[in-house]
Amino acid sequence: MTDLNAASAAATEAHSREFLVFSLGDEEYAIDILKVQEIRGYENVTRIANAPDFIKGVTNLRGVIVPIVDLRIKFHLENVEYGGQTVVIVVNVGERIVGIVVDGVSDVMTLTPEQIKPAPEFGVTLSSDYLSGLGSLEDRMLVLVDIDKLLTSEEMALVDTIDA
Amino acid sequence: MDISEFYETFFEEAEELLGDMERHLLELDVDEPDAEQLNAIFRAAHSIKGGAGTFGFDVLQHTTHLLENLLDHTRHGELVLRRDIVDTFLEAKDMLHDQLDAYRQGEEPDPEAFERICQTLKQLALDEMGKKVGDDAPGAAPAAKAEPEQASQPEEKSKEASSGVSDGDGGAEGRLTIALLGIADKDRDLLVEELANFGEIIERRGDSSRYEVVLETSTSIDDIEMVMCFIVEPEQLEIVAAGGPAAGAPAADVSDAAAKSDSGESAQSGQHSEAKAASPSKTPEQPAKAEPGKPAAKGQDKAKAKPKAAAGAESSIRVPVNKVDQIINLVGELIITQSMLDQTVSEMDATQGGALVNGMSLLQRNARDLQEAVMSVRMVPMDYVFSRFPRLVRDLAAKLDKNVELVTEGESTELDKSLTERIIDPLTHLVRNSLDHGIESPDKREAAGKSRTGRLTLSAQHQGGNILIEVKDDGGGLNREKLLAKAASNGVPTAENMSDDDVWQLIFAPGFSTADQVSDVSGRGVGMDVVKRNIQAMGGHVEIQSRQGQGTTTRIVLPLTLAILDGMSIKVGNEMFILPLSTVLESLQPRKEDIYAMAGDDVVMKVRDEYLPVVAVHQALDVADAETEPTNCIAVIVQGEGRRYALLVDDLIGQQQVVVKNLETNYRKVSGVSAATILGDGSVALILDVTDLHRLSRTKREAQSASRQTPLAKEVEV
Q1: Which residues form the CheW-like domain (chain A) (predicted)?
Q2: Using the beta-carbon criterion (under 8 Å), do B678 and A66 form an inter-chain contact?
Q3: S-S: B161 plus which of A38, B133, B167, B336, CB 3.0-4.6 Å?
């Protein structure tokens, strides 16, 4: 019985992926859980001058200087507040470590390939280039963000571009 | 056994061996070569050849083989050393290095270069040894022509003849008894497997203390030994020819006896002289007679090589730099956590936690010691840098027809590894300059009443938290008039009454060279400015002292490490920044009458009859709630890239050592900022780059004035 469970779980794992679900305003977004290093509170961020407004600055993550990006500002949300509940998801993008500020982290979801639908053409705030699809889960819709592409994109200004 | 795992070890070892080889070659006295040095050179070539053979680097093996043969002749006094022969050896060493690099990159070495060096070495062997062989044994001469490689190496052939057995026996397989001493069972099987590659294993017996394998093979004892030595210690191996002609066995026995017996010393010297006496008549036809000297020398090699290797293994280990950096990072974290705890404890009621307070102060001391100890791991002696100059000086001096003696001092002075790598280029440049422009030709020197041989001194010493590196020559010195004239023609502002020191600084201006003729050594006018920039990028500075006719001294002052920085913490608004203390000259309270606004939004401040550009930090870095009235600010006079600026800040907090953290690891270059650090409370502070900050403030002001369409600055009210 136990063996059977384990076997079926393994089979599911082989095809489905796990996502960390977080909220920005009223919408729910999700990123590949394997990209997430840790989740921590928003504190002690040192401002960096002359950087885009959504780059909040840098913080000390156990001796490593990590930039903090506020996705709420990047996605033009209206209520951007910082408090004890503000959450930073620390993600590994390539060789880099970046912290992203979100309104809250809700849960970890397993999505099967059938539950992942291709992303439609989106508006200007979030180009569909940075989406890996839409996840539908009963009555919820998750926007699956390709965090690698998003954070290394030129408009995020996180990475030195060649001409810079 | 996956042999590729050992590649990296081999590359590193081979590189070290090549370095040793070069050092010995350079130190070698051509007229009276030191036997021990010749042996060391030979050993290096021998070990590389062995390794290259094991890993299948054929080109490398072949080249070292040729070199090794020549070295072997030299060692036995059959090849008389000359300067040009040493040059050829050095050239061969360079070639080996190139080949090694190629293999390291996973490529095959350049076949043309390989062909060329082989030809050179063969030709040398033919020229030097061919004559001898020809004189002593006329029969061998034609063979030498037909088969240059083989016949020009009579030694090699004789070795094979006696130990390899097959030659002597007319093609019959030789039988060797190989004894493995004190090898663990699991390793033994691998070794036996390895041995099976050489031929057929007839018999195997014994236990872990002594395990004998009888091998039917056509490979020579030497070759087997060479391969096995890469896996086991030489003394764990005993190879004896069994059942072959008598010539092989006694020779090997002698080898063992010489290496083992207490009276080996006398036996060796006796055989050594015998070998010397025998050598002129040594020909391929007389292997038995030539042989006794050879194993004895081999035995000697082993006996000497072993203790050295053992000592080296105990006294150092190889660790990748990133592991060390990780430890340094973690220790830095520990220090920060400790100071945070310290703060909490200091706020507690002292009567309650007496033990805790004591423990904290102990922890603090230990943590600091730990940090110091860890930092010292990154330090390497300057010898690492200096050791590459003897070759450079030798080659250059020969090219320029000058006699130059290189003296190095303070080789054991330690410097951060990352800095040693970056100091090599500037130093090379300075040394080239000294040789080309500084030290005169022998005739000129004699006419000036100096010894014909010039002297170039490289020295290093610690001075406070810095290291002082000097390049000193006793050449002609800088020429004041020439420099001034050159500066004038280059459009560099000069004055007749400039002090000598200021005149010398002129050579650091871009495009400046006083050489009358451009040589391929130096004089193209790019250089000293690059030297200066490189050194400044390392947080150091460079100065020149010179006296006409007596020489020039260039002094480089560098911080010991880039990982830690002496900083001055400043406050602007509510934000804290760090200024490198090395850039800070003084700080003062600006007076209203000392501040002048200029056209184009520039603001200058008069400090002791000097007008310095003013950089308002709050404006360059957009700090909110900062003091905008200059007279309420503090002006910090800083120096960057040779220029001075007045930085306007709100407050000076104090001096502290900070651990430098790279911003670009996870983020990008930020203008006006060179790096970041972590303060005692765990927050991040940015370390300012003074020159960049000035640039930033200028571009910002320009952008602002363009958008406002007003010519005068509003940030600094005058």
Answers
A1: 16-156
A2: no
A3: B167
